[in-house]
Amino acid sequence: MRRPRLASTVERRLLLNYRVDPGIAATLLPPSLRPQLQRGWAVGGHCLLRIGAARPTWAPRGAGLRSENAALRFAVEWDGPDGRTQTGVYIPRRDSGSRLNTLVGGRLFPGEHHLARFTVAETPEQLDVAFAARDGGLRVDVGVDVVPELSGSRLFQDLAEASAFFRCGATGWSATASGVRLDGLLLETRDWRVEACRVRRATSSFFEALPAGAAGLDCALVMRNVAATWKPLPALAVAGGRAAA
Protein backbone atom coordinates (compact mmCIF):
# COMPACT_ATOMS: atom_id res chain seq x y z
CA MET A 1 0.00 0.00 0.00
CA ARG A 2 1.32 3.42 -0.96
CA ARG A 3 1.51 5.69 2.05
CA PRO A 4 0.41 9.32 1.55
CA ARG A 5 2.55 12.42 1.95
CA LEU A 6 1.29 14.63 4.76
CA ALA A 7 1.12 18.42 4.81
CA SER A 8 1.30 20.15 8.19
CA THR A 9 2.40 23.12 10.24
CA VAL A 10 5.23 22.47 12.66
CA GLU A 11 3.85 24.60 15.47
CA ARG A 12 6.74 23.72 17.77
CA ARG A 13 9.76 21.46 17.31
CA LEU A 14 11.93 21.62 20.41
CA LEU A 15 15.24 19.76 20.10
CA LEU A 16 16.93 18.86 23.37
CA ASN A 17 20.46 17.72 22.51
CA TYR A 18 22.97 15.55 24.35
CA ARG A 19 26.63 14.76 23.80
CA VAL A 20 26.97 10.98 23.84
CA ASP A 21 30.02 8.74 24.04
CA PRO A 22 30.40 7.33 20.49
CA GLY A 23 31.07 3.80 21.74
CA ILE A 24 27.93 3.82 23.86
CA ALA A 25 25.88 5.34 21.05
CA ALA A 26 27.01 2.64 18.63
CA THR A 27 25.57 -0.06 20.89
CA LEU A 28 22.15 1.65 20.70
CA LEU A 29 21.96 1.58 16.89
CA PRO A 30 21.00 -1.18 14.46
CA PRO A 31 23.99 -2.63 12.57
CA SER A 32 23.12 -0.77 9.36
CA LEU A 33 23.73 2.61 11.03
CA ARG A 34 26.65 4.30 12.79
CA PRO A 35 26.87 7.48 14.89
CA GLN A 36 27.40 10.75 13.04
CA LEU A 37 30.11 12.48 15.04
CA GLN A 38 30.25 16.18 15.82
CA ARG A 39 33.49 17.39 17.42
CA GLY A 40 34.21 13.82 18.46
CA TRP A 41 30.83 13.18 20.08
CA ALA A 42 27.75 11.28 18.99
CA VAL A 43 24.62 13.45 19.12
CA GLY A 44 21.43 12.20 20.77
CA GLY A 45 18.36 13.86 22.14
CA HIS A 46 14.63 14.35 22.20
CA CYS A 47 12.44 16.04 19.60
CA LEU A 48 9.28 17.45 21.22
CA LEU A 49 6.97 18.16 18.34
CA ARG A 50 3.53 19.70 18.06
CA ILE A 51 2.06 19.31 14.60
CA GLY A 52 -0.98 21.22 13.43
CA ALA A 53 -3.21 20.87 10.37
CA ALA A 54 -1.74 17.45 9.55
CA ARG A 55 -3.53 15.90 6.59
CA PRO A 56 -2.82 14.21 3.25
CA THR A 57 -1.44 16.77 0.79
CA TRP A 58 -4.61 16.53 -1.30
CA ALA A 59 -6.92 17.34 1.64
CA PRO A 60 -8.03 20.86 2.66
CA ARG A 61 -6.28 22.47 5.61
CA GLY A 62 -9.49 22.42 7.62
CA ALA A 63 -9.42 18.63 7.61
CA GLY A 64 -6.07 18.56 9.42
CA LEU A 65 -5.39 17.23 12.90
CA ARG A 66 -3.24 18.51 15.76
CA SER A 67 -1.11 16.40 18.08
CA GLU A 68 1.75 16.42 20.58
CA ASN A 69 4.52 14.00 19.75
CA ALA A 70 8.04 13.07 20.82
CA ALA A 71 10.94 11.23 19.22
CA LEU A 72 14.04 9.86 20.90
CA ARG A 73 16.74 10.36 18.28
CA PHE A 74 20.38 9.90 17.37
CA ALA A 75 22.27 11.55 14.51
CA VAL A 76 23.47 8.75 12.24
CA GLU A 77 25.13 8.00 8.94
CA TRP A 78 24.99 4.98 6.66
CA ASP A 79 26.23 3.75 3.29
CA GLY A 80 23.66 4.26 0.57
CA PRO A 81 23.09 1.89 -2.36
CA ASP A 82 25.79 3.73 -4.34
CA GLY A 83 28.26 3.48 -1.46
CA ARG A 84 28.09 7.18 -0.60
CA THR A 85 27.70 8.24 3.02
CA GLN A 86 24.24 9.57 3.86
CA THR A 87 23.09 11.30 7.05
CA GLY A 88 19.87 11.41 9.04
CA VAL A 89 18.50 10.35 12.40
CA TYR A 90 17.70 7.01 14.00
CA ILE A 91 14.56 7.03 16.14
CA PRO A 92 14.39 4.07 18.54
CA ARG A 93 11.14 5.30 20.07
CA ARG A 94 8.23 7.58 19.20
CA ASP A 95 5.54 8.75 21.63
CA SER A 96 2.32 10.64 21.00
CA GLY A 97 -0.55 12.15 22.91
CA SER A 98 -2.85 11.15 20.04
CA ARG A 99 -4.52 7.75 20.13
CA LEU A 100 -5.02 8.05 16.38
CA ASN A 101 -1.27 8.35 15.84
CA THR A 102 -0.68 5.21 17.88
CA LEU A 103 -3.22 3.37 15.72
CA VAL A 104 -2.09 4.48 12.25
CA GLY A 105 1.64 4.87 12.93
CA GLY A 106 3.54 2.02 11.33
CA ARG A 107 0.42 1.02 9.39
CA LEU A 108 -0.99 3.85 7.29
CA PHE A 109 2.03 6.09 7.94
CA PRO A 110 5.66 5.39 8.92
CA GLY A 111 6.58 5.32 12.60
CA GLU A 112 5.10 3.19 15.37
CA HIS A 113 4.04 5.34 18.36
CA HIS A 114 3.52 4.71 22.08
CA LEU A 115 0.70 6.53 23.85
CA ALA A 116 1.86 9.23 26.28
CA ARG A 117 0.45 12.02 28.44
CA PHE A 118 1.85 15.48 27.60
CA THR A 119 1.91 18.62 29.77
CA VAL A 120 2.69 21.84 27.91
CA ALA A 121 2.95 25.53 28.87
CA GLU A 122 4.23 28.04 26.33
CA THR A 123 4.75 31.75 25.81
CA PRO A 124 6.73 33.42 23.01
CA GLU A 125 9.73 33.55 25.37
CA GLN A 126 9.43 30.31 27.37
CA LEU A 127 8.63 26.68 26.57
CA ASP A 128 7.82 23.97 29.10
CA VAL A 129 7.11 20.50 27.72
CA ALA A 130 6.88 17.22 29.62
CA PHE A 131 5.54 13.80 28.83
CA ALA A 132 5.27 10.39 30.42
CA ALA A 133 4.68 7.27 28.35
CA ARG A 134 1.67 5.21 29.42
CA ASP A 135 3.80 2.05 29.29
CA GLY A 136 6.38 3.57 31.65
CA GLY A 137 9.09 3.37 29.00
CA LEU A 138 10.10 7.04 28.91
CA ARG A 139 9.73 10.30 30.84
CA VAL A 140 11.00 13.70 29.74
CA ASP A 141 10.61 17.16 31.32
CA VAL A 142 12.11 20.24 29.64
CA GLY A 143 11.97 23.96 30.37
CA VAL A 144 13.76 26.49 28.13
CA ASP A 145 13.97 30.21 27.47
CA VAL A 146 14.21 31.38 23.85
CA VAL A 147 17.36 33.51 23.44
CA PRO A 148 19.03 35.40 20.56
CA GLU A 149 22.24 33.36 20.41
CA LEU A 150 23.40 29.83 21.17
CA SER A 151 25.98 29.70 23.96
CA GLY A 152 27.63 27.09 26.15
CA SER A 153 27.44 24.28 23.60
CA ARG A 154 30.41 21.96 23.14
CA LEU A 155 28.90 20.50 19.99
CA PHE A 156 28.26 23.67 18.00
CA GLN A 157 30.15 26.94 17.70
CA ASP A 158 27.03 28.99 17.04
CA LEU A 159 23.39 28.83 15.99
CA ALA A 160 24.22 28.71 12.29
CA GLU A 161 26.39 25.61 12.70
CA ALA A 162 23.75 23.88 14.81
CA SER A 163 21.01 24.73 12.31
CA ALA A 164 23.04 23.34 9.40
CA PHE A 165 23.80 20.12 11.29
CA PHE A 166 20.16 19.36 12.04
CA ARG A 167 18.99 20.38 8.59
CA CYS A 168 21.13 17.53 7.24
CA GLY A 169 19.19 15.17 9.52
CA ALA A 170 15.84 15.53 7.77
CA THR A 171 15.69 11.80 6.96
CA GLY A 172 14.43 9.76 9.90
CA TRP A 173 14.61 5.98 10.36
CA SER A 174 12.24 4.67 13.02
CA ALA A 175 12.58 1.34 14.81
CA THR A 176 9.75 -1.16 14.33
CA ALA A 177 8.47 -3.93 16.56
CA SER A 178 9.52 -6.53 13.98
CA GLY A 179 13.17 -5.53 14.29
CA VAL A 180 13.82 -6.39 10.64
CA ARG A 181 13.15 -3.00 9.05
CA LEU A 182 13.25 0.72 9.76
CA ASP A 183 10.35 2.96 8.73
CA GLY A 184 11.55 5.97 6.73
CA LEU A 185 10.24 9.53 6.76
CA LEU A 186 11.62 12.71 5.16
CA LEU A 187 10.88 16.20 6.54
CA GLU A 188 10.59 18.74 3.72
CA THR A 189 10.29 22.49 4.26
CA ARG A 190 11.21 25.67 2.40
CA ASP A 191 11.09 27.69 5.61
CA TRP A 192 13.82 26.08 7.72
CA ARG A 193 14.58 28.36 10.64
CA VAL A 194 15.57 27.64 14.22
CA GLU A 195 16.02 29.68 17.39
CA ALA A 196 18.45 29.15 20.23
CA CYS A 197 17.29 28.25 23.74
CA ARG A 198 18.76 28.40 27.23
CA VAL A 199 17.87 25.29 29.21
CA ARG A 200 16.32 25.98 32.62
CA ARG A 201 15.74 22.32 33.43
CA ALA A 202 15.90 19.02 31.62
CA THR A 203 15.34 15.46 32.76
CA SER A 204 15.30 12.36 30.58
CA SER A 205 14.79 8.89 31.97
CA PHE A 206 16.58 7.49 28.91
CA PHE A 207 19.81 9.49 29.02
CA GLU A 208 19.96 9.43 32.82
CA ALA A 209 19.87 5.61 32.68
CA LEU A 210 23.03 5.40 30.56
CA PRO A 211 26.35 4.61 32.30
CA ALA A 212 27.86 7.47 34.29
CA GLY A 213 29.63 9.93 32.01
CA ALA A 214 28.16 8.43 28.83
CA ALA A 215 25.93 11.42 28.03
CA GLY A 216 25.79 15.10 28.90
CA LEU A 217 23.20 17.78 28.19
CA ASP A 218 24.53 20.17 25.54
CA CYS A 219 21.94 22.59 24.15
CA ALA A 220 18.41 23.15 22.92
CA LEU A 221 16.92 24.61 19.75
CA VAL A 222 13.38 25.33 18.64
CA MET A 223 11.59 25.62 15.32
CA ARG A 224 8.17 27.29 15.36
CA ASN A 225 5.31 27.82 12.93
CA VAL A 226 6.93 26.32 9.85
CA ALA A 227 5.00 24.74 6.97
CA ALA A 228 6.30 21.22 6.37
CA THR A 229 5.57 18.11 4.36
CA TRP A 230 6.31 14.58 5.57
CA LYS A 231 7.26 12.15 2.81
CA PRO A 232 7.23 8.38 3.49
CA LEU A 233 10.36 6.57 2.30
CA PRO A 234 10.89 2.92 1.38
CA ALA A 235 11.69 0.86 4.46
CA LEU A 236 15.35 0.23 5.26
CA ALA A 237 16.35 -3.36 5.93
CA VAL A 238 18.29 -3.97 9.15
CA ALA A 239 21.39 -5.81 7.95
CA GLY A 240 25.01 -6.14 9.00
CA GLY A 241 27.33 -3.50 7.65
CA ARG A 242 25.16 -1.89 4.93
CA ALA A 243 21.69 -0.45 4.79
CA ALA A 244 19.63 -1.70 1.88
CA ALA A 245 16.35 -0.15 0.78
Description:
The longest helix has 9 residues, at 159-167. This protein is mostly beta strands. The protein contains 4 helices and 14 strands. Strands 1, 2, 3, 4, 5, 6, 7, 8, 9, 10, 11, 12, 13 and 14 form a 14-stranded mixed β-sheet that branches. Mean pLDDT is 95; it is low at 241-245. The chain has one domain. This is DUF2071 domain-containing protein.
List keywords for this structure.
245 residues; DUF2071 domain-containing protein; 54% strand; 14 strands; DUF2071; 14-stranded mixed beta sheet; 4 helices; disordered C terminus
What is the residue-mean pLDDT, rounded to a whole number? 95
Q: Mind telling me the C-alpha Rg?
A: 17 Å
Shape: globular
Please report the total strand number as a whole number: 14
Task: Please estimate the helix content.
Answer: 10-25%
**The number of domains:** 1
Give me the strand/helix succession: EHEEEEEHEEEHEEEHEE
Backbone structural class: mainly beta
- Sheet-strand content, in percent, reads over 45%
Give the helix tally.
4
Low-confidence stretches: 241-245
The major β-sheet equals: 14 strands, mixed
Distance between the termini: 16 Å
Give a short overview.
This protein has 245 residues and is mostly beta strands.
SSE layout and pairing:
Elements: E1 6-20, H1 22-27, E2 34-35, E3 37-38, E4 41-56, E5 65-79, E6 85-96, H2 99-104, E7 114-122, E8 126-133, E9 139-147, H3 159-167, E10 171-175, E11 181-188, E12 195-204, H4 205-208, E13 215-223, E14 226-237
Parallel strand pairs: 6-7, 6-10
Antiparallel strand pairs: 1-4, 1-13, 1-14, 2-5, 3-4, 4-5, 5-6, 7-8, 8-9, 9-12, 10-11, 11-14, 12-13
